[in-house]
Specification:
alpha+beta; eight-stranded mixed β-barrel; 28% strand
Length: 231
């Protein structure tokens, strides 16, 4: 009898623990629309299978966080896939190249394809710190007039594809900006601009070697399974 009572008393606790675990899993990811999730999942698959322009495998394993930028949405996503389930950890509004997307050296376009973070700059600096090169010069306001600046944190990018191998020399970076009012629409010289608070947060989640896939617009082949079947 006592054993039965103890078993009955234990069941609600186990149930509560399960509910808490389920809640934690739900809170661990951000809900996105199905067609966005399909694009992110397809991009993640490409990163796992990626070989650079010299034929070397990326070495990225399932479960490792990666970045995906969807250009038409002007959003940057931090994602990972575990047990065939894509998790959107974070999403951020961004501002990409004012002239669109492309990999030519002398264009104000954001590069496409597979990129890699090869440097982190600005750690420990006050939010809003403006940089010339890698040197902090002053604190900039998020909506100030004048020249666009790289602020708060900078993530240095290198191209992993043959077409975008010039990225490092183009000084393409993910960084904060003093032009936050333009976040959400193309306005940069080719870099990926973020709100200052967002880039400070993202800085903590990524490291040297984190991969980024830039997709300017939907890839119809990746979305074919999402399209309705014609009767």
């Amino acid at each position: 009898m006592q054993d039965s009572l103890m078993q009955m008393q234990k069941q609600p606790a186990d149930s509560t623990q399960k509910q808490q675990a389920d809640s934690t899993r739900m809170q661990g990811g951000i809900a996105v629309e199905d067609f966005v999730r399909a694009r992110l999942d397809a991009a993640y698959t490409k990163l796992v299978a990626h070989r650079d322009y010299q034929g070397r495998k990326s070495g990225m394993k399932e479960g490792v966080p990666a970045l995906v930028l969807l250009g038409d949405l002007q959003k940057l996503y931090l994602v990972r896939r575990r047990n065939n389930d894509l998790e959107v950890i974070k999403q951020y509004p961004v501002s990409t190249g004012i002239d669109g997307f492309g990999n030519k050296y002398d264009e104000q376009r954001t590069p496409t394809g597979t990129l890699m973070i090869v440097g982190k700059r600005g750690e420990g600096e006050p939010i809003g710190t403006a940089f010339v090169g890698d040197e902090p010069i002053r604190i900039a306001k998020p909506h100030e007039a004048g020249k666009a600046l790289m602020t708060s944190r900078m993530l240095v990018l290198s191209g992993s594809d043959y077409a975008n191998r010039n990225i490092y020399n183009r000084v393409i970076r993910i960084h904060g900006t003093n032009k936050e009012k333009f976040i959400g629409k193309p306005a940069s010289d080719g870099c990926i601009r973020m709100k200052n608070k967002d880039v400070v947060e993202l800085f903590k989640f990524v490291q040297w070697g984190t991969l980024l896939y830039v997709e300017p617009k939907p890839d119809s082949s990746a979305l074919k399974d999402m399209l309705p079947v014609k009767m």
